[in-house]
Q: What sequence folds into this?
């Protein structure tokens, strides 16, 4: 079982590396609208994935795993997650891949993420009421599933809209690089495989790893929250371990493994002070995971996996993530 999860994580990491979607320069570049590869890949993954996944479910090969629309957590957590993503320049899943490639700022981001996960576990009982109200698991299927013709028509239409949006962004960017398209399509297929009842019967995810591992290492395991995240956290830990291994192995095979703390995008906007980058990497990781746990997911587990299910919670989460990301990109980064 663990080996199969490692293999899935390895493939996840390999796909991200194929289009450099894990790189700080690419994700940080999205925050300042200098690079749209991540946004294009996400849109095409949701578009293709929505059609693929709903076909799988229709044939009885998989089932829905829709996250509930807990309004306060989705809105506030999504915005906080976007802030952390802009500052850190990584997502919970890409942290592991980039660390494998030698990115030292990813290491400090992981440390911040672990602390953020632990603090969230400790503080959750004191602010859990702020996360509501809970409107339940709302998706296109829950709204139109009793009318299958309408449902599948809308699935194809919305899938086409997301794919079209990706190509519209590509036209705006005026880039000739199409690796984002192949990576996005591959991520949709990989997530579709993970969803299969015969494989993992769950979506791809990453952010639960951090509170799970932090709670385990500090023996903060007696509360209800750890019991809730224990199973998904263990799965995601092995999944990210596979992604980390892909970062190491493939970068060595490409002969581009390099220990790096200051990346070009950070240098351009924030300078070359190493201490400054270390501190902000830690802070960004802390904020990233705190927001992810408030919302109950991250880029892979919420935006992509939930988007493929056309879940209201995940699509709303995406809106507030990008709001936090772009606002922080405008305010935090100043070109030197």
A:
């Amino acid at each position: 079982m663990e080996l199969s999860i490692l293999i899935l994580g390895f493939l996840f990491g390999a796909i991200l590396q194929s289009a450099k979607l894990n790189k700080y320069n690419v994700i940080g570049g999205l925050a300042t609208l200098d690079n749209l590869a991540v946004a294009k890949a996400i849109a095409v993954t949701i578009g293709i994935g929505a059609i693929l996944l709903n076909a799988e479910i229709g044939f009885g090969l998989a089932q829905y795993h829709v996250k509930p629309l807990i309004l306060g957590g989705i809105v506030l957590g999504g915005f906080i997650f976007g802030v952390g993503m802009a500052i850190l320049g990584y997502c919970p899943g890409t942290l592991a891949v980039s660390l494998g490639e030698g990115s030292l700022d990813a290491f400090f981001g992981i440390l911040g993420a672990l602390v953020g996960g632990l603090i969230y576990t400790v503080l959750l009982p004191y602010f859990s009421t702020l996360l509501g109200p809970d409107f339940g698991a709302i998706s296109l299927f829950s709204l139109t599933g009793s009318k299958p013709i309408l449902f599948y028509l809308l699935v194809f239409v919305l899938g086409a809209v997301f794919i079209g949006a990706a190509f519209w962004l590509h036209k705006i960017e005026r880039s000739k690089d199409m690796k984002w398209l192949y990576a996005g399509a591959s991520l949709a297929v990989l997530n579709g495989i993970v969803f299969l009842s015969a494989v993992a019967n769950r979506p791809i995810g990453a952010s639960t790893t951090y509170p799970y591992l932090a709670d385990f290492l500090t023996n903060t395991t007696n509360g209800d929250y750890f019991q809730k995240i224990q199973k998904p956290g263990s799965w995601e830990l092995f999944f990210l371990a596979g992604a980390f291994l892909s970062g190491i192995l493939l970068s060595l095979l490409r002969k581009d493994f390099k220990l790096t703390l200051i990346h070009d995008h950070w240098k351009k906007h924030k300078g070359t002070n190493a201490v400054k980058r270390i501190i902000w990497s830690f802070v960004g990781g802390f904020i990233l995971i705190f927001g992810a746990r408030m919302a109950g997911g991250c880029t892979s587990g919420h935006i992509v996996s939930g988007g493929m299910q056309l879940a209201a919670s995940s699509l709303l989460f995406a809106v507030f993530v990008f709001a936090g990301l772009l606002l922080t990109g405008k305010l935090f980064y100043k070109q030197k």
Observations:
- The two ends are 49 Å apart (CA to CA).
- The mean pLDDT is 97.
- Residues 2-332 form one domain.
- Residues 85 and 151 are 34 Å apart (CA to CA).
